[in-house]
Specification:
This protein starts with a strand and ends in an 8-residue tail after the last helix. It has 16 helices and 14 strands. Helix 1 (about 10-20) crosses helix 16 (about 365-375), helix 8 packs across helix 10 (about 275-280) and helix 9 packs across helix 14 (about 335-345). By secondary structure, it is an alpha/beta fold. Strand 3 and strand 4 (about 65) form a beta hairpin. The strands form 3 sheets. The chain has a 6-stranded parallel sheet with strand order 11-10-9-12-13-14, sandwiched between helices. Strands 1-5-6-7-8 form a 5-stranded parallel sheet, with helices on both faces. The chain has 2 domains: about 1-180 and about 365-375, Glycogen Phosphorylase B (Rossmann fold), CATH 3.40.50.2000; about 185-360, Rossmann fold (3-Layer(aba) Sandwich), CATH 3.40.50.2000.
Length: about 375
């Protein structure tokens, strides 16, 4: 069973693959969570909507999606009662579906009892510790999250940095199960599809930088990459930025669009996204350096790497640690440093492709799902 109150890319990829081995039931409130604009009133309405949601099956299949009432804790006074409510709802779901294993990746969702008749696996995908200030709320959140990790039967983490985070926060080891990419699908895209994308957007004579969203989160660092591109094109007018996915229109707030070399596609069906990776000459990853992004295993970097493309990124710790041969870094997140990196031929120079092929095989979703299965069933140890 996959359990959390948001079915994001990592959870969905792993759940779909685990569905071939076991009956998987995924608690999915993705639509309710993604449509929240961000104001206090909107967040309160979202939380009320989650709390009042009916217990219902949304879609049956290898992964059965369902909805149920969820309470969201927001601080030291609400964490425990919200967690107790969610534990009761969890028991109801386990009984309804006949499940004996829980996969959890949502902090503050519930505190697993010390004595229970189901196995709990905790999957750490973000650093929910270092970004919190040392306030009562921050301390309560750290203590709650650490308690969840300590009580779990097994723990995994999506990056090497996250493995260190779990050790620091909860004093236990986490199994390294990295974020990944569908390697076979991305590598088997016909060249004609990439050529068609370049022709559609009139990119034949340009060096195309791809910024491809994962369809669930906003484009962090959009202003940085767009403003840097506009300045770099004064020297290299052949540069272009291809922004792919919903919400990419935000790029137009910082430029004049195609007139400044910025091409926005809007939403693209997931089955067709591979062609846009291959239509790009390189990928860009301008996310702000902060605890979450330093420790994250960003999907688009892995996806561009799977397609054999160079990637230019802010100097984020996880990717500096991985040392993939195709990933190069700006000096800092400053727009001026991005301009200089875009103008530097070394940023997109050739690299050892045999080494990249060997290294990127570690990040296949199928491989990560197999490792997760071994961990959840007790067949793997807890070393990174």
């Amino acid at each position: 069973m996959i359990f959390g109150h948001d079915l994001r890319v990592r959870e969905a990829e792993l759940a779909n693959r685990l569905g071939a081995r076991a009956n998987v039931f995924a608690l999915d409130h993705t639509e309710a969570l993604n449509k929240v604009p961000g104001g206090i009133g909107d967040k309160l309405r979202m939380r009320l909507e989650l709390f009042r949601a009916p217990f219902e099956v949304l879609e049956e299949g290898p992964v059965t999606r369902f909805r149920m009432p969820v309470a969201v804790g927001t601080g030291p006074w609400l964490n425990e009662p919200a967690a107790e409510w969610n534990e009761r709802m969890l028991r109801r779901a386990l009984d309804k579906f006949g499940c004996d294993r829980v996969f959890l990746s949502s902090p503050f969702f519930f505190m697993p009892p010390e004595k229970r008749d189901y196995e709990l696996h905790y999957d750490v995908i973000d650093n929910f510790h270092d970004q919190w200030p040392d306030t009562r709320t921050g301390r309560a959140r750290r203590e709650f999250h650490a308690g969840q990790l300590r009580r779990a039967d097994s723990v995994s983490a999506s990056s090497l940095q996250q493995c260190d985070y779990v050790k620091r926060l909860a004093g236990r080891a986490a199994v390294y199960i990295p974020n990944g990419a569908p390697l076979h699908e991305l590598r088997s895209v016909p060249e004609t599809e990439a050529v068609a994308v370049r022709a559609k957007y009139r990119l034949e004579d340009r060096f195309v930088l791809g910024y491809i969203g994962n369809h669930t989160h906003p484009y962090y660092g959009m202003e940085r990459i767009v403003r840097a591109l506009v300045r770099a094109r004064e020297t290299r007018p052949e540069l272009a930025l291809l922004v792919v996915g919903p919400g990419g229109e935000s790029a137009l707030e910082f430029c004049r669009g195609e007139q400044d070399g910025v091409f926005v596609t809007g939403p693209v069906p997931p089955a067709e996204v591979g062609a846009f990776f291959h239509a790009s000459g390189a990928g860009v990853h301008p996310y702000d350096p902060r605890p979450q992004t330093h420790d994250a295993m960003a999907l688009n970097v892995i996806e561009f790497s799977a397609c054999g493309k160079p990637v230019l990124s802010n100097p984020l710790k996880e990717f500096q640690r991985l040392q993939l041969p195709n990933v190069r870094f700006t000096v800092s997140a400053d727009i001026g440093d991005w301009v200089r990196a875009l103008l530097d031929p070394a940023s997109f120079a050739d690299f050892n492709r045999d080494e990249l092929d060997r290294r990127i095989s570690d990040f296949d979703w199928d491989r990560s799902a197999r490792k997760l299965w071994r961990v959840m069933t007790g067949e793997a140890d807890a070393s990174p």
